[in-house]
Design brief:
33% of the residues lie in helices and 20% in strands. By secondary structure, it is of the alpha+beta class. Strands 1-3-2 form a three-stranded mixed sheet. Strands 5-4-6 form a three-stranded antiparallel sheet, with no helix packed on it. The longest helix is centred in the middle third of the chain and has 21 residues.
Length: 167
């Protein structure tokens, strides 16, 4: 079972394996608002150099995923951190990034792992607005004018009458 301390330990170990020091492990946090991203590294410019400043992991992903998937996600984000730390440039998922992934043992070098990206998060939408003629759909979180007075609106694509249902 992973918690924040174990995540920090694995992250720091992966970076040390690549010869990169993590000065402050408190830059590693859990974010309960991340529902489509498993993890991310933030970097800011200090002069002309890009410097990693924050690493976040999805709290719901950590709570619902397997240890192996979590470990691979930690290694993936560590590879991003290492790439920026070494080169002072953002590499995205290029060949240099993939080389670092291989160096630290990360085989999930894609943005999306085999874990469902909607990591157990319920849909924030309450209403689904749709056109029965062309199939165009839109979602709404609140009961707005479109929902309360749907008879006054028509589809922007085909001009047909719109309908809604609660999700």
């Amino acid at each position: 079972m992973y918690d924040l301390n174990r995540i920090k330990t694995d992250f720091v170990e992966a970076c040390e394996m690549a010869g990169v020091e993590v000065e402050d492990s408190n830059i590693i946090t859990l974010n309960s608002r991340l529902t489509r991203t498993l993890g991310r590294v933030f970097s800011n410019y200090q002069g002309k150099d890009l410097v990693p400043t924050k690493v976040e992991f999805s709290k719901s992903f950590i709570e619902t995923s397997t240890d192996e998937c979590i470990h691979q996600t930690i290694l993936h984000e560590a590879a991003h951190y290492i790439a920026v730390k070494r080169s002072k440039v953002d590499h995205g998922h290029d060949a240099y990034f993939k080389q670092i992934c291989a160096e630290i043992g990360c085989y999930e070098d894609k943005t999306q792992s085999h874990v469902d990206r909607l990591v157990g998060a319920p849909s924030p939408y309450k209403y689904l607005v749709f056109c029965p003629n062309c199939g165009h759909m839109a979602s709404r979180t609140r009961k707005c004018k479109l929902i309360t007075h749907i008879e006054n609106y028509s589809c922007g694509k085909c001009g047909s009458k719109l309908y809604y249902k609660e999700v």
